[in-house]
Specification:
There is one protein chain. The chain has about 375 residues and is of the alpha+beta class. The chain folds into 4 domains: about 90 residues, conserved putative lor/sdh protein from methanococcus maripaludis s2 fold (Beta Barrel), CATH 2.40.420; about 90 residues, Efflux pump adaptor protein, beta barrel domain (Elongation Factor Tu (Ef-tu), domain 3), CATH 2.40.30; about 60 residues, Beta Barrel (OB fold (Dihydrolipoamide Acetyltransferase, E2P)), CATH 2.40.50; about 80 residues. Helices cover about 30% and strands about 40% of the residues.
């Protein structure tokens, strides 16, 4: 009986011990679950990367010609026939002007001309009469009816010297009158070169001034001047097409590289370059010499292994990521290359389809338990 009691007591202790161990094990399991950090991941993948280098540039003209009117008298702008962006040829009329206050001068010139003409006609009548009188006087002289002195006086009156003088005076008066008449016609500003209009400083019905002008780029070619760092000199070749972005509104244009200086500019320590813009009429009306632009050099790389840039952390010179594998975050040192602000090229340390932590990586330690709650 005693042995039975002892056996029951031992069994009771064993059962109590088993019951007490079960809550301990559950508590450890709960602590393990709580230690897992929720993260999001992304896969390392292959992409074609585009590397862009932006250089500052400025638009310039091949040869800028400023055309101004040659007006001898005050005038009003009557017509503006040229607009910015227009192509003009030599001889094209750009502006027309109406000369002011010309009527009084025409009236005066006309009166002087009429007076000279009347005097000339009167003197011509006298001259013709003198010629007839000379013939009669010669006959009379030959017959002894008049003296030699009377003959000489008749010859003097018929000499025509005075007529020559009057003819010159009449011609001068006519020329002065014609000049004034020509002023009644619209004066014009004519293109002396062929090219693209880049500026028009003229307004209809306003007075012409020394500032009235039309600017024309000879041959109409707008160019971009920019400086190329020595490190990029071998990346470009003459004839290559470049992207040009206008800083004012971010509009984009193409240009062909036409010149790379053979030597470094000592002032900038870079190579001076020149590119000709490829423009249509709509672009010509927007762009003009002096505008600031960005010259974009695009370098297309071969297929590269990339991950989101936020996945990469740095410790001094060391770059690393956390790889998610089998519920554990493993720290992995990587070597990076090109970075476009969104993705980063990995040239060593990762393999295709490796899962890297992109959210929660700031709180991870090597070997920490994780739970993937988002991403791939």
């Amino acid at each position: 009986m005693k042995r039975i009691v002892i056996l029951i007591f031992v069994l009771t202790i064993i059962l109590s011990a088993c019951q007490s161990e079960k809550p301990v094990n559950n508590e450890l399991e709960n602590e393990s679950e709580q230690a897992k950090l929720a993260v999001e991941v992304a896969s390392a993948e292959l992409q074609n990367l585009t590397n862009k280098t932006v250089l500052a540039g400025i638009i310039s003209g091949d040869e800028l010609v400023i055309l101004t009117p040659n007006l001898m008298m005050p005038a009003t702008i009557k017509e503006v026939r040229a607009e910015v962006g227009d192509w003009v040829n030599i001889g094209d009329i750009l502006l027309t002007f109406k000369v002011n206050g010309i009527d009084d001068q025409i009236t005066l010139a006309k009166a002087q001309y009429d007076l000279a003409l009347a005097n000339y006609n009167m003197q011509m009548d006298n001259y013709n009469f003198a010629l007839d009188n000379l013939e009669r006087t010669r006959i009379l002289y030959q017959n002894g009816a008049v003296s030699k002195l009377e003959l000489e006086q008749a010859e003097l009156r018929a000499s025509g010297n005075q007529i020559n003088t009057l003819q010159q005076q009449l011609n001068q008066a006519k020329s002065a009158y014609d000049i004034q008449l020509s002023k009644t016609k619209d004066k014009t500003l004519v293109a002396t070169v062929s090219g693209r209009v880049t500026a028009v400083n003229a307004t209809i019905e306003t007075a012409a001034s020394p500032q009235t002008s039309v600017a024309v780029i000879k041959d109409g070619k707008l160019k971009v001047k920019f400086s190329l760092p020595e490190s990029l000199k071998n990346e470009l070749t003459v004839g290559e097409q470049l992207q040009v972005v206008l800083k004012a509104d971010q509009s984009s244009y193409s240009a062909n590289l036409t010149q790379i200086a053979p030597a470094v500019n000592p002032k900038t320590a870079m190579f001076d370059c020149l590119a000709v813009l490829n423009l249509d009429d709509s672009a010509d009306s927007v762009l003009s010499a002096g505008m600031n632009v960005d010259v974009v050099l695009v370098d297309k790389n071969t297929e590269s292994l990339v991950i989101p840039v936020d996945a990469v952390k740095k410790n001094g010179e060391e770059s690393y990521v956390f790889i998610a594998k089998d519920g554990i975050a493993k720290k992995q040192v990587v070597q990076t290359a090109f970075d476009n602000g969104e993705i980063i090229e990995i040239i060593d340390g990762l393999a295709l389809n490796d899962k890297v932590v992109v959210v929660g990586q700031d709180f991870l330690k090597d070997g920490q338990a994780i739970e993937i709650v988002g991403g791939e």
